[in-house]
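Our working data are protein records whose layout never changes between entries. Getting from the letters to the C-alpha cells is the skill we practise here. To make this concrete, we reproduce a full record directly below:
***
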Amino acid sequence: MNCIHRHLERKLMHMSEFFKAVLVTGARQVGKTTLLKHLATGQNRTYVSLEHKMARELAQTDPVLFFQTYKPPILIDEVQHAPELFERIKTLCDESEEPGRFWLTGSQQYQMMKKARETLAGRVGILTLYSLSQTEKADVVFPNDLDFSLSCLQARQALVSQNDVVAVFEHIWRGGMPQVLYADAEQRQEYYDAYINTFLMRDVTELGGVTDSLRFGKFLTACAALTGEQLNYKTLAEAADISPPTAKEWLQLLEGLSIVYLLRPYANNALKRLTKTPKLYFCDTGLAAHLSLWLTRETLMNGAASGHFFENYVVAELPKSYSYAPSKVKMTYYRDSNAKEIDVFIEENNSVHPLEIKKSASPDRRDVKKFAVLEKSAVQTGAGGIICMCEEAIPMDPRNCFIPCNLI
C-alpha cells in the first residue's frame, strides 16, 4: 500500500523534527504501521511490534532491558500493550536532545492516551491517522487550507474531477480501509466480518472487559442504524438488551478505538437553551454500511438511509482534512430547544464557519437563513454554505457558497 500518499506524512515528519517522540494513533488497520515503516525507509531505525508475545512481555516486565535490546531510534508498534514503557521513554528523551528518536503507534484508547500525555508531556507529539480520505484515494493534495471561501474552493476545483454521486457513494460504501481499496463485494464483506470478529472483539475484550460478543454485536449494529442522529443511550441499550450505563461504557470504548466519532454540540454563553447531546457518526462509512447490510453501492445510494450516510461521509472527511493540516479547528454542531439545527460548525480563530449538508445537487438556498442565529452571539461568522452534490462552487451571497463535497 506504499503507493498511496498519506496526507499525514508531512505533519508527521514536521513533528518528528521537533518532538523527541511522535505517537500515531487511530483505529486498527487504517495504515499506521505501513505509513511509519514507509517513512523509516533508509533510516537506521529499529522496528519492534508489541503484538509479538516475547517483545510485549519484555516491555511490560523490564523496560530498561527492552531498550537495551531494541535501541533508539526506534519504531514501536501497538504501544498500548505496554504503557510501562512510557516512564523509560521519558528518561531516554531527557538524556538526549535528538528529536524523533521514538516513533510509536497505538490504538487511541483512553487509558493509554492519558498515560502518554501525562508521562511524556512536552516530549511527545500525538497525531491521528484515519482511514483513507476521498482525496488520498484520488491522489490529490490541495494547495490551500480549507476556509470555505469562494477563492479557496475555486483553487481546489481545478485539481479534482467533476463531482459525481456514483463516485461519492462508491467511496461511502467501500470505506477507507486500505485493504478493501481494490476488493470486490465478496472480499469486502469477508474483510469487515473479520475486522469486527477478530480485531474489534479482541480489543473490546482486552481493553473494556466486554465478554458478551452477541450483545456487543447487536450494540454495534444499533450504532450503525443511528448514524447521523443525536445520541440516545436508552435506544442503544434496548437494541442490545443491556443497561443504559453499559451502553455509555461501550460507546466510550468505541470512541476510544476510533470506531465511532461523536460530534459535540456547540456551546456559547450568548446563545441559551442549546442541546448538550452529541451526534453519532462512524469514522469509516464502509464499516457502518457493512453493519447496516447495505450490500451494494446502488442499494445504499438509493436507500432510505442515503441522506444519513452522505452526512456521515462529510462529517468523517472534515476531521481528516483538518487533522493533517497545519492549523487546528474545533468541530461542533448547533441545535437549540426549538429544534433549529445547523449540521456543522467549524470554529477557528474566534470565527465560526456554519455548514449544512445535503445529498441534493441543487439544495434550497434558503437553508442558510438558519445561520442568522450566530448574529445573536459575539462570535464572528466566517465563510460557510451547503456541502452538497453540486458540480462547482457557486456563491449564494457574499459569505456562503454551494460547496461540492469533493472539495473538502
Summary: The mean pLDDT is 93. The chain has 16 helices and 15 strands. The longest strand covers residues 341-348. Residues 185-208 form the longest helix (24 residues).
